[in-house]
Write a structure and sequence with these properties.
Mean pLDDT: 88
Shape: globular
Radius of gyration: 19 Å
Strand order of the largest sheet: 1-2-9-4-7
Oligomer: single chain
Bound molecules: zinc ion
CATH topology of the largest domain: Jelly Rolls
Strand content: 35-45%
Order of helices and strands: HEEEEEEEEEEEEEEEEE
Helix content: under 10%
CATH superfamily of the largest domain: Jelly Rolls
Structural class: mainly beta
CATH architecture of the largest domain: Sandwich
Length: about 220
């Protein structure tokens, strides 16, 4: 059955008149990317939803549209095929600890192709506009504490990576943030509202911690 999807889409695109407006390019009826087989929601607030995702071999997703900006981290390596609405197939190999960032409105099909599936935690940013920031840290130090590596910084998010658990230091979060602990295949995600003052991210013994600061 798998081959039929791109073939059908190609057929639809070819039969479209005029060709400048292919009927499958922006259908409002497309499902969102998640939920889908292999994806488990691990956090849901009014600001974000967070997914633990495995790209399962031989289980192509439906054609879907990503309706939110997303950021995340891959924690197990793997391969997948990304199939565009016009049927073009693009193989992608991804390493563990690569950072993902994608702006909304991407439309495609994805299918895992490696026996051991690619795995990631993705944070979907429900808020299309700015999340805002605290004006001052007050008497606390602004996050991040020592020991983090900045893996990504753009207009929507800053990603901090800890490969050792940070030492306990009182700090204030200037931005809304999601902390993701990764240890095996059951990552945990915690919402940290901007303005929060605390001494740690409530992490037990995870091997890695990522803090996604939303902007
Ligand atoms: Zn913190």
């Amino acid at each position: 059955m798998r081959w039929m999807v791109p073939a059908l889409l190609l057929l639809l695109a070819q039969s479209a008149t005029p060709p400048a407006t292919p009927p499958v390019a922006t259908p409002a009826s497309l499902p969102p990317a998640y939920p889908r087989p292999g994806a488990t929601k691990i956090l849901d607030t009014d600001r974000v939803q967070v997914w633990n995702i495995a790209w399962l071999k031989g289980q192509p997703s439906p054609l879907h549209r990503h309706i939110y900006d997303l950021v995340g981290v891959y924690y197990e390596p793997g391969d997948r095929m990304i199939i565009s609405p016009d049927g073009a197939r693009r193989p992608v190999s991804t390493k563990a600890w690569d950072i993902a960032f994608q702006r909304k409105d991407v439309t495609h099909i994805e299918e895992g192709v490696s026996d051991a599936p690619l795995r990631a935690v993705f944070v979907e940013m429900k808020q299309p506009g700015a999340y805002g920031a605290e004006a001052t840290a007050g008497d606390a130090a602004a996050f991040p504490g020592a020991g983090a590596t900045e893996r990504l910084d753009n207009d929507r998010v800053t990603v901090w990576e800890f490969t050792r658990m940070p030492s306990s230091t009182r700090h204030r979060h200037m931005h809304d943030a999601v902390a993701v602990e990764i240890d095996g295949e059951h990552p945990r995600a915690t919402w940290i509202a901007r303005g929060t003052v605390h001494s740690d991210e409530a992490v037990a013994n995870a091997s890695r911690l990522y803090v996604f600061e939303l902007k």
